[in-house]
Design goal:
Shape: globular
Oligomer: single chain
Number of strands: 0
Helix content: over 70%
Strand content: under 5%
Order of helices and strands: HHHHHHHHHHHHHHH
Structural class: mainly alpha
Distance between the termini: 118 Å
């Protein structure tokens, strides 16, 4: 019983560590556009987001119940299985953070849980209908719906206020952007913090500490909310740069449209109990807002890399979770080996990240980001220089033809 209590404590600590990585991995979802447009300073933005993530954690438990009661069979699931699932989710979060890709923490967690459960109890222990209807289908539909909504909202805002002075409307849209960013942060806490609550509750059920079918205890809600808030405050600056500057260039009214559309989709999904990826929703809304402005562009190669990461998230986390479960199944020494590997791999990833630091001071720097595209660059190359001082300066750099040599006869 003492050994079992120890593994249960390890699972709870590991779950909170995942929640922490979820916080800094997904800070970009709420604050990337607000930071990139200058509506809020970076540190103020992440502080505001952290506080609202904590508040959002207390608003609902529907998503937590989807994980703790619906995705896998509670009977026969050991705490070691949940530990292995968290290992897969944490490592995927850290790898994608290192390369600055906004992948889904939610799908990493779901993939790790499915892979570890299959390795432990077989495919029959996974409820396929819940996996399809509440995880896979929303993963496909959410970015499309949010993107279309953001595109229409952007076009509507430019259509209604097209004749208005841009400087006069900028302050209003920035204020709206701050409010909508706060709403996204609140929605993120309502959806993502609950996933860790559900995992911890599932572990408590597996360990016999709470009855099957129970809602998350209050201490679980509080600790999960604090962990994700702390991670959010740390700030996932690499992913914020990709989401705010690498995907498209947004003006304040586009940022407002993107965040409002994303918040609406996330809150609706939380109410329905869908384990939605806030990353998918916000990425879709940012792309939609980018396309909604006349002349706006999306850097599709960056978007393609993101989508590849989305597709790989579930199977990659599932594979690591299954492998970790196979090792923990060997006994206490196997569990210890997996724990040591997790700590060592996390430390190695952090050390690699120090080679090129991205923080609040340089998050909006555009050096090294992807250009607008080959066609845009080619058009710029053939555009004639404008008349005026610039043209005069260019002319001044072209040497004048050499004067003909004087005729020696003329000097006689």
């Amino acid at each position: 019983m003492e050994s079992f209590s120890l593994i249960l404590a390890i699972v709870v600590v590991t779950a909170l560590a995942f929640d922490f990585t979820n916080g800094f991995h997904d800070t970009a979802n709420a604050m990337a556009t607000t930071i990139s447009t200058g509506a809020l300073k970076p540190k103020i933005a992440v502080t505001m987001s952290a506080a609202l993530n904590l508040v959002g954690a207390f608003l609902s438990v529907e998503v937590a119940n989807t994980i703790s009661k619906g995705l896998v069979d509670e009977n026969g699931i050991r705490p070691e299985v949940i530990f292995a699932a968290l290992v897969g989710a944490i490592l995927w979060n850290l790898v994608t953070w290192l390369v600055g890709l906004p992948s889904s923490s939610s799908h990493a967690l779901m993939g790790g849980l499915v892979g570890a459960t299959v390795a432990s109890a077989g495919f029959g222990a996974v409820h396929g209908d819940v996996l399809v209807t509440k995880i896979l289908l929303p993963a496909v539909a959410a970015p499309v719906v949010a993107g279309l909504a953001a595109m229409l909202a952007t076009r509507l805002s430019y259509g209604i206020g097209g004749n208005a002075d841009d400087n006069a409307t900028r302050k209003g849209y920035r204020a709206g952007q701050i409010a909508s960013a706060g709403l996204v942060s609140l929605a993120h806490g309502t959806n993502d913090a609950q996933k860790t609550m559900g995992i911890i509750t599932l572990a408590l059920i597996a360990g016999g500490s709470v009855a099957p079918g129970s809602n998350p205890p209050t201490w679980v809600i509080l600790s999960a909310g604090l962990a994700i808030a702390l991670g959010t405050y740390i700030g996932g600056w690499r992913i914020i740069r990709t989401m705010g500057k690498g995907l498209t260039d947004l003006q304040p009214r586009q940022g407002f449209a993107a965040q409002t559309s994303a918040a609406t989709a996330i809150l609706a999904s939380s109410h329905l109990g869908f384990s939605l990826s806030t990353t998918h929703v916000v990425s879709g809304s940012v792309m939609g807002a980018g396309l909604g402005r006349k002349g706006g562009t999306v850097r599709w190669s960056t978007a393609t890399r993101m989508m590849v990461a989305w597709v790989l998230t579930l199977p990659a986390a599932a594979a690591v979770g299954a492998l970790a479960e196979s090792v923990t199944d060997l006994g206490d020494w196997g569990t210890a080996a997996v724990a040591v590997f997790l700590v060592a791999a996390s430390a190695a990833i952090w050390k690699l990240s120090r080679r090129q630091v991205v923080d609040s001071a340089n998050v909006n720097d555009t050096d090294g980001t992807e250009p607008s595209g080959v066609v845009t660059a080619a058009m710029a190359a053939v555009t004639p220089p404008p008349a005026g001082p610039v043209a005069d300066a260019l002319t001044a750099t072209i040497p004048s033809p050499a004067a003909p040599a004087a005729d020696p006869a003329a000097t006689v």
